[in-house]
Design brief:
The protein is an alpha/beta fold and 175 residues long. The protein has three helices and nine strands. The radius of gyration is 16 Å and the shape is globular. It starts with a strand and ends with a strand. Bound molecules: inosinic acid and magnesium ion.
Length: 175
């Protein structure tokens, strides 16, 4: 059976919301040294659009964090990349994520980045999944709340597929 995809958030709604988030970030960080830390790979598409709408100067850097592998369930184990090399001491830092699900990834990342002495540390996530028992995470810049279903598109994948879809879709994996 083929994977089943059902539309959840259209490309048009995403575009509008990304513009609003970028405006808010620009206003909040006018006089700061701002660094965006983009979490690969899922946030790449969101971040590319977000960056082009931010009007204040910023530095961009990337980290890898993966907890899913080839499944549609969070494994609970978070493998972080080489975030220790980031030069963010005294910077306003915004972690850019595609989706916060159990909250483990972003919580682990925040703890690691905190040690590098940023002036401020906030999270920008396109999506926040409403999951029972998830770690409480403060998402200062949030795109949309979504129900507890697996989603793909706009950078997000299922076993590396569907990142190219312009909107966000719910996925029911085929057999
Ligand atoms: P968490 O650690 O459970 O919050 O998982 C966050 C990470 O898992 C995100 O950065 C995504 O890459 C991935 N993820 C979580 N939920 C989904 C989903 O519904 N579709 C695709 N990737 C997801
Ligand atoms: Mg991710």
């Amino acid at each position: 059976m083929a994977d089943q995809l059902r539309p959840l958030i259209s490309a048009r709604r995403i575009k509008k919301r990304v513009g609003e988030l970028a405006r808010q970030i620009s206003e909040d960080h006018r006089r700061a040294t701002l660094t965006l830390v983009i979490v690969l790979k899922g946030a790449a598409v969101f971040a590319a659009d977000l960056m082009r709408r931010i009007e204040t100067p910023f530095v961009v850097d990337f980290v890898r964090a993966s907890s899913y592998g080839k499944t549609a369930r969070s494994s609970g184990h978070v493998a972080l990349g080489d975030e220790a090399r980031l030069d963010i001491a005294g910077h306003d830092v915004i972690v850019v994520e595609d989706i916060v699900d159990t909250g483990r990834t972003v919580t682990a990342l925040i703890a690691a980045l905190e040690k590098l002495g940023p002036k401020s540390l906030d999270v920008c996530a396109l999506l926040h999944k409403q999951v029972a028992g998830a770690q409480p995470v403060t998402i200062r810049y949030k795109g949309f709340d979504i129900p507890d279903e697996f989603v793909v598109g706009y950078g997000m994948d299922y076993a590396e597929r569907y990142r190219n879809l312009p909107g966000v879709y719910r996925l029911t994996p085929g057999g």
